[in-house]
Q: What sequence folds into this?
């Protein structure tokens, strides 16, 4: 299965590598446009290709692009990209994931110094030689050095959202095999951690060696590391490691508990068992060498005197005490969301019209949405000006008439927080917005005190509804800003400003730890998609995952309120 995102990524990567190679700019642009068309399309190309649909009937898709998409869906590969990857050193490809380094600059670096690895790049950046290239100021050099560090630290962890389809496909594949009764993906994947190191799959099956044989034949497998009597390990095409373990029925619960982790949670449980004169391992709970539990997780917890603890909470962050004191949270669910308050339309850098978004939102069962396009400073993201936003609001008025009783569209904006904490629109515009998402999009590296002041000034602005993506981090790319959240939380509560859990899979900020702290301080949260096309309205499921890891209940999140309740709250 290929998602549009994956197809688009291959096309965009082809454009980048062609550019590094110094190919004809028109050709480069053609691939880049192709990537954008695929990414923003609401059609499921994988499905269309498999149904034999003629893609050239869709707007924007010519004969070439149609062939590319077909090839990628049918083979999982794109031959032009494969050829380019053979020609271009991996180190240069890696450099593309450093913030601030696009194909143009990577080419510049390569042409000037012949650098082909991150190690070499680091040396040139540190020695001051990189500064000599036009356009490479000290700021950029600093960014590059930070980026190299981040890449190394990230190792080859994958975003949770990146492995989701792979994991679910594998689950389906394994369940198809005769004699397989249960397949469960444990580890950090089951705990819904924002990034996962590898997949840990448990199977209950009649004949494990046969399952293992079948497992290593999975089409995405690139390399079989081991295939043993109860355990096999493979690496997939994208480098992801997958462990498969055989488990018996009698031990299933104990194994699931053990391999779900986290390690820190497991260690605590083991300590409790020992204090009760028991022993816990992946086979069961034992007292006086007699097995007293193991078939289900509930049983395992019960044997050591605890209640069931949801996987997302198993991080040894107080879940065991909370269970003992009967105050485990009743975690929020996706169905609890009744609207989405951060969505971009084609007025700024979104792909869709407001009407298309509204229709999709109705399909998703929402009662309301907010259209929040970028303010004027963000020229790169097609930021709006005063005239444009007023025109947009007129359209929203018209659409609200049209969709009366079906959905309500809030007039909103995502307004830039400027360096001094003031906002990128004047009062005349802000007072016309029902939802004002204030966000930082530049100067991420101000010292802690100044950065905190900047955010707090925005929180104190009477027009601000929400601080969006409050830490500014991009997983694997950009470190979070240095901020005093203790202060920010108390100011947010005082001013009735919401803090966002941004659901973009590489943002997911606030993160789990901050969410838990925010809730303890009484901060109200909002889980938003920050969608730029129809498909990414579904990102909220990742935001929900993160919220659950942060002990979030329905009552902590304002977009679980009904339209009426929310409007009442906004008026306050
Ligand atoms: P990851 O893969 O780095 O995202 O994180 P996990 O949590 O999936 O860790 P992984 O794959 O190394 O191991 C899966 C689970 O197995 C882990 O969550 C807990 C359990 N486990 C692994 N090693 C140990 C250990 O040394 N002691 C205990 N108690 N449990 C362990
Ligand atoms: Ca794992
Ligand atoms: Ca593992």
A:
């Amino acid at each position: 299965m290929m998602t549009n995102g994956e197809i688009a990524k291959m096309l965009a990567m082809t454009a980048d590598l062609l550019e590094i190679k110094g190919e004809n700019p028109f050709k480069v642009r053609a691939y880049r446009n192709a990537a954008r068309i695929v990414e923003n399309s609401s059609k499921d190309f994988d499905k269309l290709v498999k149904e034999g649909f003629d893609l050239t009937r869709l707007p924007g898709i010519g004969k070439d692009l149609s062939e590319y998409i077909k090839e990628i869906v049918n083979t999982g590969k794109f031959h032009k990209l494969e050829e380019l990857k053979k020609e271009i050193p991996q180190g240069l490809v890696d450099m593309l994931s450093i913030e601030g380094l696009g194909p143009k600059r990577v080419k510049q670096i390569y042409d000037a110094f012949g650098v082909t690895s991150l190690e070499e790049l680091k040396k040139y950046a540190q020695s001051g030689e990189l500064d000599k290239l036009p356009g490479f100021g000290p700021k950029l050099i600093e960014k590059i050095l930070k980026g190299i560090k981040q890449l190394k630290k990230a190792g080859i962890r994958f975003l949770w959202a990146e492995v989701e389809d792979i994991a679910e496909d594998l689950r389906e594949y394994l369940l198809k095999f005769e004699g397989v009764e249960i397949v469960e993906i444990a580890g950090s994947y089951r705990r819904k951690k924002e990034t996962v190191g590898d997949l840990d799959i448990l199977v209950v099956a009649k004949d494990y060696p046969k399952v293992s044989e079948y497992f290593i034949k999975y089409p995405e497998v690139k390399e079989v590391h081991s295939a043993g009597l109860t355990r096999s390990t493979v690496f997939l095409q994208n480098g992801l490691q997958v462990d498969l373990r055989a488990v018996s029925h009698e031990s299933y619960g104990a194994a699931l508990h053990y391999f779900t982790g986290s390690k820190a949670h497991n260690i605590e449980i083991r300590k409790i068992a020992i204090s009760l004169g028991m022993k816990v391992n992946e086979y069961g709970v034992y007292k006086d060498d007699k097995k007293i539990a193991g078939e289900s997780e509930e049983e395992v917890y019960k044997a050591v005197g605890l209640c069931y603890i949801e996987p997302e909470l198993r991080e040894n962050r107080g879940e065991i005490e909370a269970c003992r004191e009967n105050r485990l949270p009743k975690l929020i669910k996706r169905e609890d969301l009744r609207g989405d308050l951060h969505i971009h339309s084609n007025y700024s850098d979104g792909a869709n019209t407001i009407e298309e978004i509204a229709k999709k939102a109705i399909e998703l069962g929402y009662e309301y949405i907010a259209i929040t396009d970028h303010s004027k400073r963000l020229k790169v993201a097609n930021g709006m000006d005063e005239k444009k936003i007023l025109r947009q609001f007129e359209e929203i008025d018209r659409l609200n008439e049209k969709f009366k009783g079906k959905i309500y569209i809030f007039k909103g904006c995502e307004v830039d927080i400027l360096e001094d904490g003031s906002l990128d629109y004047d009062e005349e515009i802000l007072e016309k917005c029902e939802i004002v998402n204030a966000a930082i999009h530049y100067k991420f590296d101000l010292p802690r005190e100044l950065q905190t002041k900047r955010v707090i000034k925005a929180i104190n602005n009477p027009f601000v509804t929400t601080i969006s993506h409050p830490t500014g981090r991009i997983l694997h790319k950009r470190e979070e800003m240095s901020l005093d959240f203790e202060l920010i939380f108390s100011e947010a509560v005082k001013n009735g400003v919401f803090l966002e859990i941004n659901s973009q899979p590489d943002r997911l900020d606030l993160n789990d730890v901050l969410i838990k702290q925010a809730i303890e301080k009484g901060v109200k949260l909002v889980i938003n998609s920050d969608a730029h096309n129809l498909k990414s309205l579904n990102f909220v499921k990742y935001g929900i995952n993160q919220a659950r890891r942060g002990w979030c209940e329905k009552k902590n999140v304002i977009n679980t309120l009904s339209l009426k309740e929310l409007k009442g709250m906004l008026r306050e």
Remarks:
- The radius of gyration is 25 Å.
- The chain is about 45% helix and 15% strand.
- The mean pLDDT is 94.
